[in-house]
Write a structure and sequence with these properties.
It contains three helices and 13 strands, in the order βββββββαββββαβαβ. By secondary structure, the chain is mainly beta. The protein folds into two domains: 89 residues, no CATH class; 122 residues, no CATH class. A hairpin with a 5-residue loop joins β8 and β9. The chain is globular, with a radius of gyration of 22 Å. 16% of the residues are buried.
Length: 228
């Protein structure tokens, strides 16, 4: 979709709305916006993108430039027109130079539940690791229940298990549902008949149960050979 708008000095440029029917899945929105050079006036055109009334993108281009912006992911579930706002949103102002170190509070490697699929599941971690590259630049760390920061293997994509138990530990808010069994163990039962087997294809992936141990559980091994 291409849209153009213009206005005189001052005032609001207006708004546009588009309805798109989408099947269930995870999506992001990418858009381009430009700002012309105005002699003697301040360039302050800001473009805001909203999904169901929730802002998911905000950019202000520099004079005489255009920028590309991709929103954080959001999920569409249920009926084809049902939608929800994405998680971990953060507005970013982009100029003609690169923007770095944007903290949007999201981690592709943390496993926070024993669900078979979805955000925070073991299956989602494996899917993320299989799809993402750049492990050679990774230097992951995590903080255990005692508040001690520990380095994980460098140049590897390691799982970080933080499945909530009966008591809150650092890094987990209180009030979460206990997902450990009576022995204090997080049990994962893949629904292979429905969603297929859990297959790791990235040789630099590590599924490390000790991160849950160090957050007060009893696992003590690193699983797998080759692609761990």
């Amino acid at each position: 979709m291409q849209i153009g708008s213009g206005a005189g000095a001052g005032g609001t440029y207006g708004s546009f709305q588009q309805t798109i029917q989408l099947p269930a899945g995870t999506y992001s929105i990418r858009f381009l916006t430009a700002q012309r050079t105005n002699n003697g006036r301040v360039d302050n055109l800001t473009v805001s993108v909203l999904l169901n009334g929730v802002q998911i993108g905000l950019v202000t281009p520099s004079s005489g430039t255009y920028v590309s912006f991709t929103t954080s992911a959001f999920s569409v579930s249920g009926a084809s027109q049902a939608s929800v706002a994405g998680l971990s949103q953060v507005p970013v102002t982009v100029s003609s130079t690169s923007v770095t170190d944007v903290d949007f509070g999201y981690n592709f490697d943390v496993i926070t539940n024993t669900n078979d699929s979805g955000i925070g599941s073991l299956r989602q971690f494996i899917a993320n690791s299989n799809a993402l590259s750049g492990e050679s630049s990774l230097a992951q760390v995590y903080t255990n229940a005692s508040g001690i920061t520990t380095a994980l293997a460098t140049s590897k994509e390691s799982s970080i298990f933080m499945v909530p138990g009966p008591t809150a530990v650092p890094g987990l808010r209180s009030g979460l549902t206990n997902q450990l069994n009576t022995s204090g163990v997080a049990v994962f039962t893949p629904a292979t008949a429905t969603n297929g087997a859990l297959i790791v294809t990235d040789a630099n992936t590590i599924i490390d149960g000790t991160t849950q141990t160090r957050n007060s559980n009893t696992n003590n091994v690193t699983l797998g050979t080759g692609a761990q």
